[in-house]
Amino acid sequence: MDYKLFAIRVFVRDWERAVRFYTETLGMPLAYRSDELGWAQLATGECQLALERAAPDDEESQALVGRFVGVSLQVSDIQATVATLQERGVEFAGLPEAQEWGGVLAHLRDPDGNVLTLLGSRE
Description:
By secondary structure, this protein is an alpha+beta fold. It contains three helices and nine strands.
């Protein structure tokens, strides 16, 4: 078998706000967008980050909005990235924090409350 990770899905309620946040505020290039399907793919390297609109009448998809997503987005300069995103109004759980294993993590919230992680290295 041949597996290749295609996309990590992030469930959102407010479709337009989410697309603007990820493309304009975070600066991720849009690879694909279908407003009809409520699906967008962001060009984040070999694996894309995908936004999926949670159907208002679907309890299962609604329960997936506003949680720790478990996505780590690697950035070349975490301090500069966090500073830029804070200037753009992005909410962080705290300052970038050095980890015992050598990385630096910062957790941000999207407008729907989903938590994503920025990953950097010690400088």
